[in-house]
Amino acid sequence: MTQRKAVVALVGRPNVGKSTLFNRLIGARTAIVEDLPGTTRDRIYGEAEWSGVSFVVIDTGGLEAQKTAEYRAARPGVAPLARDSARYVTEITNQARIAVDEADLIVLVVDGKDGLTAADEDLAEFLQQTTKPVFLAVNKAESEQRQLDAAEFWALGVGEPIAISAFHGIGVGDLLDLIAAELSDSLVGDEREEDVVAIALVGRPNVGKSSLLNTLLGRERAIVSEIAGTTRDPIDTEIVYHGQKISLIDTAGIRRRGRVEPGIEKYSVLRSMRSIDRADVAMLLVDGVEGVTAQDAHVAGHVLEAHKSVVVLVNKWDIVEKNTQTMVEYTRQVRADLQFLDYVPVLFISALTKQRVQKVLPTALTVAAERRHRIPTAELNGLIQDAYHRSPPATKQQRPLRIYYATQAGVEPPTFILFVNDPELAHFSYLRYLENQLRRYYPFVGTPIRIRLRARS
């Protein structure tokens, strides 16, 4: 159902301009692309589009390690220059390995001003071992002479050097042409079959995602530990439930911005975010003892931004002190803490004792079905016009907002286009009102809906 975009990784030694090129590539989109929440303060993940081909760009510059006190303490007898050289080689190798593992296409960025270096040769030698396409971008080639000098990088053995200036935009269009042509010939689709529902288990570290996965599967599939973050990579497991194929994705815990350690864990979080992007339904686990935290709201915010359907699972319910009203009061509190997800179902479970776990998959499939629901056009227009006339939008303008026609433009999630006299006249609160009116008749349980305004031509 959900299709995965191809991934392009930018690799190179420090200060060759990877981040500048990254910003230039994602700036090539005509639409505004917001930073992906939940990673570090570095912008290491963004979307680009060129010649009708959309792809994800990873700036592996985020892996360049800081000179930590822990590292110095670990090697007290090594001179500073030797320590830094060892760290540098290790980080470059890690960077290349992650790029090869994560990417569908790799761009090796070198510095045309510095010329060919031993570190460039080491990286190129490593990348020669992969079967994935590699493009060589010679950056900082602003002058005609540097563009000519770029020919020396043929010696790296990874193909034709492409002279660019990421800062000035010189040659970047040529690089994008090559990337788009390569990806259009081998567009990456999700490996799941069309009738498979993808369900991602998401949440902050140590809320019981892997325990729930093991309970659903009936066997130990993921490492379960009291140590937060023991699930490093997303784990996909396909099952068949009442004839429906389901892909269960267990993800590493998503931490708040600024709490992600450099290196492997940063990319574990990145992979978890990408897992959400390719899921149909996100099962958001909350610790029943601790309640909804700011970190939970942060994770929920990313799921919402990705337009995924949601079920909230309050885990560890077996150890919560409760009475006959606890569940009702807790549900009310969850909806208050996650106000923007007031349409999602809330289940109270225990992955450990299996309490109500039998309701998890049926609820997820119900939500997945809602995600694909369509409203007949005539009925949709009747609902919108009725809502409009019962409560016209307040306006300080001389012209009031007028809604002429509505149509459902798509599903997954349900998306509606309203043709109006002027989109600028609509306040977001009125769009929320229209959404609530639609949900009175079509609840779209657990599923976000999008309402877009378009000026009638």
UniProtKB/TrEMBL annotation:
Known partners and oligomeric status: Associates with the 50S ribosomal subunit.
Residues that, per the record, bind GTP 2: 203-210, 250-254, 315-318
GO biological process, one term: ribosome biogenesis
Entries under InterPro entries matching the protein: AAA+_ATPase, G_ENGA, GTP-bd, GTPase_Der, KH_dom-like, KH_dom-like_a/b, P-loop_NTPase, Small_GTP-bd
Matches recorded under PROSITE patterns: G_ENGA (PS51712)
Name of the protein described by the UniProt record: GTPase Der
Binding site for GTP 1: 12-19, 59-63, 139-142
Domain of life: Bacteria
Domain EngA-type G: 6-187, 197-372
Keywords: GTP-binding, Nucleotide-binding, Repeat, Ribosome biogenesis
Family annotation (HAMAP family): GTPase_Der
